[in-house]
Write a structure and sequence with these properties.
The chain has helices spanning about 1-15, 40-50, 55-60, 65-75, 80-90, 90-105; strands at about 20-25, 25, 105-110, 115, 125-130, 135-140. It is of the alpha+beta class and about 140 residues long. It has one domain: Nuclear Transport Factor 2, Chain: A (Roll), CATH 3.10.450. Helix 2 (about 40-50) runs antiparallel to helix 3.
């Protein structure tokens, strides 16, 4: 009985921090890719994308409801196809634009939503939403 209580006590901090959570077989790494604020989440997104960790981006940094719906309805449950689509969209030009936004733009943060915009780059913004205690990128751009 004491061993079980000890195991629960040891596992509880990891659960509370979101460690050990997996989506689509990809483990959450909140230490490397924090998401406590929209700024952290966006920096984590850029870091993961630059490291070509697109699987992590899709599993843990993009809006879970958006990804779940696309994987189910558009790709018939095939997560790898969503990852391939996201990788194709995150070409070097797109990443360069997003890095520029990170440097030049201003955040407008509310309780559950945040927007990163700048007048210098028309028609491009980064949208974030808070789910639980984590922030995620939203897709609100027109195709």
């Amino acid at each position: 009985m004491r061993i079980a209580a000890l195991l629960v006590a040891l596992a509880l901090p990891a659960v509370l921090l979101g460690q050990g959570a997996t989506r689509f077989g990809v483990a959450l790494d909140a230490a490397t890719f924090p998401q406590a604020t929209p700024q952290e989440a966006f920096a984590s997104f850029l870091k993961a994308a630059q490291q070509n960790r697109i699987t992590y981006v899709v599993a843990h940094l993009a809006d879970p409801a958006f990804i779940d719906e696309r994987v189910e309805k558009l790709y018939g449950g095939k997560f790898a196809e969503q990852v391939a689509d996201t990788a194709a969209r995150l070409d070097p030009g797109t990443l360069k634009l997003l890095q520029r936004l990170a440097k030049e733009a201003e955040w407008n943060v509310a309780e559950k939503e945040a927007i990163l915009t700048t007048k210098a780059i028309e028609n491009r913004s980064v949208y974030m939403k808070k789910v639980g205690d984590r922030w995620f990128l939203q897709n609100k751009q027109s195709p």
